[in-house]
Amino acid sequence: MIWLLLFVLIFAFLMGFFQVSIWIMYSVVVVVIVFFLFRIPLLFGRDTEKMMNFLKKSKRPYMQFLYYLLNNDLPTAEKAIGNIRSGKMKRLAETMLLMEQKQFGKAKELSGQMGENKSKWYVLANIAMYEGDAAALKQYQEKIKDPFLLKMLEVDQAVCDGKKEEAVAMLEAIIPTLRGFKLLSAVQFRKRIQEGRV
After folding, report:
1. pTM higher than 0.85 for the full model?
2. d(CA 127, CA 1)
3. Which of 68, 71, 105 is nearest to 84 (CA)?
């Protein structure tokens, strides 16, 4: 990442030194940014194996945590949380782990420390669903604007109600339309349902 930014800085300096047209400079910057975005499979990727390899090879602790969590290696995922420096990301990771361990009380308490965002509302809606609190579920669901998270709540509801085949069918219907991390999460969730881990 640092090498890429250094390269862009040197390239921009050289283009300025040789007085290249501003439109050519903008075009080159756009091409570099697009190239960089498509090199990260978690953004627009369609190959889940590449995404899992990207997470596995990543040096960032949050990415390593996601890799272990998606592979259901919860003890190693818990250890990886200790290496996450960002307070916001650490709370999110801890909440995700608690949800996976079905420790809803602790997850609810920890999500109260999170800022007002879609992750918080999704977690609280999921907890309300498992606790059977329809009023709270509706309240949190209304705050979620992301169609993917709303669809995932429907899938969670089907799993909670014991309709696992229906949940798998819903996931299979949306998987072709997804890209990046959303695709990876949906595929991994379908795998967990099919293996009976949910």
Report:
1. no
2. 38
3. 68
